[in-house]
Sequence to fold (901 residues):
Amino acid sequence: MTTKKVYIISHSHWDREWYMAYEQHHMRLVALMDDLLHLFKTNPDFHSFHLDGQTIAIDDYLEVRPEKREEVQAAITAGKLKIGPFYILQDDFLISSESNTRNMLVGLEESRKWGDPVMLGYFPDTFGNMGQAPQMMKEGGIEAAAFGRGVKPTGFNNVVINDEKYTSQFSEMWWEGADKSKIFSLLFANWYSNGNEIPVEKEAAQAFWKEKLADAEQFTSTDHILMMNGVDHQPVQMDVTDAIKVANDLYDDYEFIHSSFDEYLEAVMNDVPADLSTVSGELTSQETDGWYTLANTASARIYLKQKNTDVQRQLENITEPLATMAFDVTGEYPHDQLRYAWKLLMQNHPHDSICGCSVDEVHREMITRYDKALEVGKFLASEAVESLTASIDTSLFPTDSKPFVVFNTAGSAKTGTIETEIEWKRLPFSQGVPEELYAQLKNETLPELTVIDAKGQAVAAEILSHEVRFNYDLPKDAFRVPFMAIYVKVRLVVTDMPAVSWESLALTVGQNTTSALPTIVSEADNRLENEFLHVKVESNGQLTVTDKTTGITYPNVLTYENVGDIANEYIFKQPEGDQAIYAHDFPATTTVAINTTKIGEITLIQTLMIPVSADETLAEEMKAVVEMRQRKAQRSKELAPFTLTTKIRLEQGSRQLKFSTHFDNQMKDHRLRVLFPTNITTDKHYAESIFEVVERPNGVSASWENPTNPQHQHSFVNVQDATHGMTVSNYGLNEYEILADNTTIALTLHRSVGELGDWGYFPTPEAQCMGEQTVAFALAFHGADDQNRTFHDGQNFQIPFTVAQTSVHNGRWAPKAAYLTIDSSAYALTALKRKEHQTEIVTRGFNLSNTASAPLEIKISGYTPTRCTLIETPHEKPLSAILEPAEINSLLWKKSASVND
Ligand SMILES: [Zn+2]
Fold:
């Protein structure tokens, strides 16, 4: 008889913050770590403890007990405390591609300062798994992953249906990524608590093992059985080694050992059967009833997702690119400050944090972290811009003009509006009393002003207004300088500004240009029109949009839908029989807000009458912890006005119709979406996910019972057929659904719920998201072969232009130039940064197609590239001019030896 081996791994799944505030969990972590250090010293049989795959727990402990550093180091060195490979345990889908990357990069680096990390991609509690994880893990040198969700184990008693891609007979399987990278994977088929609280008392132990071994053996493919001794915030089982002795006494045919993932993985990977099944792509519990996929966390507390977008875009697409360019001027890069900002951002990325599924205290602290990270990012960006603008030649502008430089820091050409303030005249406090300086400037009459480019050509711009206000300079080498100044507000549209480029302009005295071109809005019939789109705002507030390139007309665009929601932060559940309320059934009014040859904007106001909340039943059902599917609550009969104010903007040269919707939410327990019927009937669609544009089926699996099928996205979702398609982009709106009609894109704008959900009753009044809310999204169309343009525009919708005023001066850089050039419409840039702690440039991007390769040529003047991995180490693959399907492409750029700048 073969002896089966049972690997007992002690651990605690450490949600850093969740159903209690961070510090409540934190103080318990201190107790756990104290216990562990005590146990390591006093019980030589205690093999090791798995610290949940996240290094931040060490920082959190040492913040309270800095004197324990050496003891922690000794425990790690001795192999007692098993750490890494990640910084935090993230939600894959709600954080950006770069955030997922930095989590591994920082986690591995910090682990290695202590010792050897556990090389296991650890996703025990993640709400589904991203399709590029296999490629990403391999790039980090990690050959195995473990997760608790995403795949349905079928076990020995179930028939495995071959065409079910997301089931596995075993808890062990291969996982193939979008690019065909394969890693070994473990499903915690009986959860990561299957060996929790092992009894020491003999009879209880007998009963425990009888059940637990049978459960595990139903799924395990080898004679190596994994028992996870721990669960959420579980204190360490102090007598686990005694319990193991008892187990060994009870069984002859099993050997029980206190073990680690290192040992277990080595054993199981050497022994897996040849017919182990393979799951592929993203694992989002597709083969379930659809209720507990937890995808509706994408619409819980949308204000968090918007803030997350602010900070991610600031660090990834503004601060890092600007600082990377500025290094060529200063020879300095703010590595430490950026690491600090990234860590603050990533502290908001654990699955219970960014998912918005914690108590209010947790999410309040997140806002502070976002604000801090954003301020660091803004400061570093302004420092970089100051260095850059000082080196850009503005000497061609008139000496009395006010030059300013526009930067497009996005990875592709961008069209959009800039609204900025230019300081026209300044009086320092050293020249007088503030109120007199104020009065003096206030009494000045401004000459007619215009904007010119470096060739002296007038640029179409609107001089909107001006005001006098206090401001100050903080010189690097002297005391602060307060002053009064006249600020002139300028608005202009920039068309097709190349990727990572700048252009110098100046505000100067001169006649503002007038154009003979037609204005964008035709007021008589509520129409916006440019060279690409024709948009009619119908009397009911819906839009009829014609894509002039294909000639196709899309009716009933911008349909607002409101329904009740009686579930929680994790799950959306409409009350039984609840009928949707549509904005187009209520009166609509429109006004023209902007109408020039460059910008047209119509303001649409619709006031719906909607229920103020759910009825009283819901409060009782929540208190009684009635599972959301069993709830009988309805929406209240009491109605109140709910006003949607939509700004609909079209710019000259833009293929995107841009929307900004504002509302003051005073209602509870409801969801607001905007619907875009595509009139394209298809069985699949595309959405931006982590390092991929993922193809997803519109339909659901046979086992799916949830009447909705919510999905995650980053900046866009697309529906297309062979000849044309529609792309809906967004700013921090991560949830969409393709409706059961197989043609309509629904974008969630707002979701109000009153409780956390899950294992008890945790009221979350702030998850109702009361008060003023503004959401932004955009619409674009494409023909047969230019979908990538709409994808780039979708990404760029989240990346504003950077504008900085400067003086008239000589400089070694041209007034208008591109820092890098990318020749590939399929390549989406995610990072332009300096290598961690070093001076080389790192660029990273991915293929917008998972099925087609594409040519790729990137150039940075004065630099020479080689391939590198996600963690910035040399890559085994050589440099290639071809971007493979689903490839994540990282390049390391060294200063060319021959180039003399
Ligand atoms: Zn968790």
About this structure: The CA atoms of residues 362 and 665 lie 22 Å apart. DSSP finds 15 helices and 49 strands in the chain. The chain has a mean pLDDT of 96.
